[in-house]
Design a protein that fits this description.
46% of the residues lie in helices and 22% in strands. The chain is an alpha/beta fold. Strand 2, helix 4 and strand 3 form a beta-alpha-beta unit. It starts with a helix and ends in a 5-residue tail after the last strand. This is Class I SAM-dependent methyltransferase.
Amino acid sequence: MNREQISKIAHAEHPIKSPLDDDSVHRLLQRGLPRGDERVLDLGCGGGEWLLRALATRPDLHAEGVDVSADALAQAAAAALDRGVQDRLVLHHQKAEDFVSAEPFDVVLSFGATHAFGGLLPTLAAARKHLAPGGRVLVGEGFWDRPPSPEAVEMLGNFTDLATTVDRVVADGWTPVDGHVSTRRELDDYEWACWGSLATWALDHPADVDSAHALATATTRRSEWLRGYRDTWGFVSLVLRPTPGRA
């Protein structure tokens, strides 16, 4: 079972692949899409859940998603058809960093995909290339809520604290106009959902050749979370606009 298959099963009950509950996603979309008729781009869209939710509640919205996973894009296309928004969604099977569009976008999203660009600031640089004047970027990023152990850094990456993360974004030419720091409940619910879903799949498919591997992975990841980074790692979602004169 490869990493993509594991991720698909793990996120079956939590399609927003970030520690955000439905109310938080709704609020971020409200702040990021104030008109309701924007052109929206998701860099690293996966199964397209952010775009699907935006399209379902905004009949004048048009969206495009980019991802390297053909399976995830097929899932997004099927979900768009099921929700009746397929005519307003275009999906691109390619690396997000290679995507080029003839027209800019009013809003650019990137959640759970900053690693594809090499970090938060390179992700924002990529988003800026696609952004129309007056546009907004919605991005999610991890941070260290308190000093992490070396093992936690090895697991998740070399993040900074929340204040430093926001300072770096501001110094890079962006103005936060809204944001959300995931609560302990959101962080815990996300981890329980992921590794619980993977463990459930393994228990429900005992004869599958991948069952033992899936169960072992769920057990390992749950332990890494509880023992390695639960008390130190956080997640921030930012709504950003370019700072005048700082492009």
